[in-house]
Amino acid sequence: MIAYLIGLSAGLVPALSTGPVFLTLVQNSIDHGFKKAVYFIIGVALTDTSIILLTWLGLSQLSEGSEPPAELSIGGGALLIVFGLVFIFKKPQEQQPATSSSAHLQKFGLFTQAIMLNAINPIIWGFWAAISNYAITEFNHTTNELLFFAGVLNMVWVTDFLKAYYAQKLNKYLNEKFKKYLRIGIGSILVILGLKLIIEFYLL
Predict the structure, then answer these.
(1) CA angle in degrees (0–180, nearest 5) for 74-76-82
(2) Is the pTM for the entire model greater than 0.70?
(3) 17-23 long-range Cβ contacts below 8 angstroms, 24+ apart
(4) How far, in Å, CA of 118 to CA of 114, rounded?
(5) Is 11 helix (H, G, I), strand (E, B) or coil?
(6) What is the arithmetic mean of pLDDT over 21-38?
């Protein structure tokens, strides 16, 4: 149980961060509503869990301090730039009755967007590798390590749901002009973060 509580406190780090996933989650909640944003959260949760398993089982060298693979830095940066440009140039959709097929397609799109955004981000891999490395060195017992991971992930999941819920609540107070500038602002930040990843890879 102590390992679980330590995991909850460690989970505050990613839970309170304002990286690409947070920005995209907030924007999706405003654009699509809480219920559809849940599919984005599920995609993030699935990817986080998978990365933890990979690093914990020793399939990644990141926890040993080596540099992230070039594919992650370049691909992750390019993906952030693409998502950012989509937000910047995306036109608001008119409210129309959604068909069953279009609703399912939108949910699947949010789910896959989350997986792509998380899986190819070297910062995410580096963080979870560090978390895995800490668990192995600190607890040295499978049960306690799993309890620690559960605590970290539970904190992240709960706060992600809260972010999506309250972002949706803000929607009714925002006019279309403000939403437009918000999308452009978030998109610009994603583009900058993507460029930063690529530039740092070539400079370091």
Answers:
(1) 100
(2) yes
(3) 19/123, 19/193, 20/80, 20/83, 20/117, 20/121, 20/190, 20/193, 21/114, 21/117, 21/118, 21/121, 21/124, 22/163, 23/186, 23/189, 23/190
(4) 6
(5) coil
(6) 90
